[in-house]
Please model this.
Amino acid sequence: MSERVSWVPEGLDTGKPSAARLYDYLLGGGHNFAGDRALAEKFLQAQPNARTIARLNRAFLRRAVLFMMDHGIRQFLDLGSGIPTVGNVHEIAQKADPETHVVYVDFEEVAVAHSQLILEGEPRATIIQEDMTKPAAVLNAAEESGLIDFGRPVGVLTVGVFHFVPPEADPRAIVAAYRDAVPAGSYLGFSQFTQDLQPEEMAGVVEVMKKSQNPMFPRTKPEIEGLFDGFALVEPGIVPLPLWQPEGANLDDPDKAGIYAAVGRKL
Amino acid sequence: MELPDLARRWMNALTATAYIPLSHAEIEQALLDSLIELPAEPESVGYRLVSLHATGPDSLQVTIDVLSSAFELPVLARLSSAYAQAMRMDAFDQQEQIKVAIVRAKQRVERTLKVSQARFQEVFDSAALGIAITDFAGRCVEANDALAEIVGLESGADLHERDLTDFYHPDDVASLSASYRKVREGHVDRFRDQRKLIRADGEPVWVHLAVSLLRDADGEPTHFVTMVEDISELHLLQRSLDHQLLHDSLTGLSNRQHFVTQVERRVESDPITLYHLGLDAFSVVNNGLGHETGDKLLKIVAARLRKLADEKKAIVARIGGDEFALLTIADNVTSTVEEIQDALAEPTFVDDHGIALSASIGVVDRPPAFTTAAELMRCANAALRQAKARGKRQWALHDPHDDARRRGRYALAASMPGAWEHGEIEIVYAPVHDLETREVLGAVARLHWEDLSHNDTMALADSTGLSLPIGKWLLREACAQAARWVAEFGDGAPTLHLALGALQSRDEDLVGDVKRALDETGLPPERLRIALDISSVLAGDDNAVVLHDSGIVTALDGFHGGHDELTVLTEVPVRTVITRAPAPHPDSPLYQAMRDLIAAVHSFGVRFGVDEVHTLEDAEHWRSAGADGVIGLLPALAAAEVTDLLTKAVSPPPEAS
Model:
């Protein structure tokens, strides 16, 4: 692999759309730019149900956090948290228990700056700027933040983000590194795009995102199962977003949910 | 429809349009509150919807759909208007927030960039490595002062716009360009090479090169980075180490190892002559004038020999402390020896000391081609020893026959320490006869080893450094034996005679050793005669005087009858002198001279003894010439044999038969 000679850091280019701001736009947020919205329109052409998928994914995040809170988790590591939009982890969790600690992790400059704005005056939540695919650096920074005690169970969240991790980054090793850093009884909350649901639309999305800063890599159910090595999957296992411990009776169509969701408990 | 049912319908509709981060129950409660409030305060309901984040593209539409059955249009219009206003404000807030985030992110990036640039600049400026950033045409966009220094320019700025290839050796340009191209085309990430650069002043400088690519933010290659490490000093150091390994640090001449390889290289093909020089009396200079003077002298000798070697196209080396070697090809030995002596004989002044120089020289001339270099060196050394034995300023040609004999002797010397340790060196006792009375005056304790005489054994011991310990051992053992005889036979016991080697004779511990031997063995001092080597007395050593003052009778061994020896006899209180001269035949013209000499010795009150007299005839000649005693008439016996003889009879000496 040819190593880049980076003797100057790359500058900041807001003209380039980011997946984080695209997500915000799909959720009806205003933290986005023309470039993000243009990409979002293409995304919507390929997957007309994208807004619903974004909403369902965000709702799964909430349910997953509350599930973990119910099971005693009081510290969260939110990998690839993106820009703070509606229903952030610390808001959900601290509503249940104000003492809950949350460490957000993102690499993108604007997302990090934005998160810092939101988190000003929040002593129990912070954002660290690291690449979630480099677990050693993330874990080190999380430890240094003083908000995560790796001796106690941790809720590790990678919600709607793992489809940005390419196969060559060795996804299993990444998950394993986080798994190994937390004690038994910790949880992994996970969701990512899959080609098992609406394969045509998925292929279109992959094509749209291919040339962006955040190309996407959907995974099949067996592939996702592989990532949960060392975890016991919580009921109902790996399922389309709306089927994971739904709150109400009137369900969205699981076949159009685009994303698999799962929660596992470290053995 | 009852309000709670309406609230549930509204909730179901709304949550399908937007993500509201609350539980369904909470949302339902919030909406129920809104329904109660709606007729009076439709605006606040509009604001609340936005704050609940019921802000999907279809959220307002489904709200109107659900509520239109239960509420009047004006109320819904006011709600819609307030909702739109709240959405605008919310959007402004969010845009404001994201703008602040952008500004902060940019500031941070710029700050990082600045720090990073400052850091880079610091590395760039202070690096010991020369660094150049060049465009793909090879022109320097930026270069640091370290690189300028390597190529002989004032500062990095002087390299700006210069073509880096200008500094490559013309022969290297093509291959280096190919290497650069490979890096640029991505075949290799970087290349390293060791090349000679040509400095601005035309001087070559050896460097390590490391070349890699710079890329822009999109990862596109834009420039080369060339790192240049000046390794000339390393080169010099390496060369200097090589030089040190092969040269003598004091004189700068080749050392022994280097010389031997040169001999090896030539012995097979060329008619070589090897000269092994030993400076005469160099130890006198070193001991007398100090090592610094000695070193200066060695440097002078080296310079002269080097000059001579240059003239003769010879190879010269310093191969030992005061030993040098010269290798010539197709040479005339006698003229070269003269040239060497002439070169050394030029008056030499070191630290105001005028020093006369000469050398003894061993020569090996045109050895057979199959001879090894080591063998040649040994032969030259043997010849040098021979030359030295002849005196100063002598030279000797290596003689293979003589060499074989010497080697036998050296082999014997080498085995001596082991032999002594294993008790193979014995002490034997030879009788001393009075020529007048024919009585046994005493017994001389001597060493016996292999077929060697006492004197040969002592000489060998001298060459191995064993003579002192052996001499002390002989002194103590012989005294102990003599004391036993005294104890057993009283006056019938023989007086013990000991002839000491040259080293022991001038050993400053000698007097102490003798006294201790007497004390420890109980031998009365008057039963001991010590013969000192006459050279020690001539050299001014006072052991003879001190022994005499301690009541021990002394003799001087190795007497030749020289004037200086006779002089000593007038100054030093000795009882006897001992010589090894051949017996003077009465018909010989020397007979009278010997008689006169003996008379002269007698006139100083000193007796005259002769060693190594093996026949009665010789003994008779000595007697007639006036000598007093002889040693060697009877073979030396082991202590037990002597004891036997003493036991059998306090017998008269054997009659001459």
